[in-house]
Predict the 3D structure of the following.
Amino acid sequence: QVQLVESGGGLVKPGGSLRLSCAASGFTFSDYYMGWIRQAPGKGLEWVSYTITSGSAIYYSDSVKGRFTISRDNAKNSLYLQMDSLRVEDTAVYYCARMTTYESSNYYYFDYWGQGTLVTVSS
Amino acid sequence: DIVMTQSPLSLSVTPGQPASFSCKSSQSLLHSSGKTFLYWYLQKPGQPPQLLIYEVSNRFSGVPDRFSGSGSGTDFTLKISRVEAEDVGVYYCMQSIQLPLTFGGGTKVEIK
């Protein structure tokens, strides 16, 4: 079965950095787009970033562009999110999610999600 | 950005009764291909979101047939024919026709 396990969350000071990892299993990782979504405490869902199968194309929300970097290692079945210049408003649970498309539409959505890892940015 | 607006904010439902939630988008989610890129997720308490419905009306693997999605253009509905206790949580809609991918604010469902 599809499993996504995030790690790397924790407490960091404003301006600091953190690297999240997502270990995937139960499917052929290199065949799927992968993304990150976050959820601030008590709030709704916010898409953060996603990458295509090869990692050669990546997309970011405006709120993290220039500060966060998504990457993947298909040999290690892993997805990463390097978060720099962290702000208090980046405090959230970060979910890793697999992306898929229906009937090869080229429009992707999230079908499986990990349990999430909490990032707290506070002085 | 496409704004997704859900209503109501919360709903209290008696088990066995139907429930219905609305999701409206600020722009049409209908693509020139004829497909509409609207999805529904359920986030149960303490859990990550899980996919219920893709492209308006297709139930994801393992989703009970009491869940159904409908709508077109900018106006969408998720219906539960007979609510069960396990259906509690927050329901989110999401669009993927345009970046950034955006979610609605959610509808919280509680059981009476």
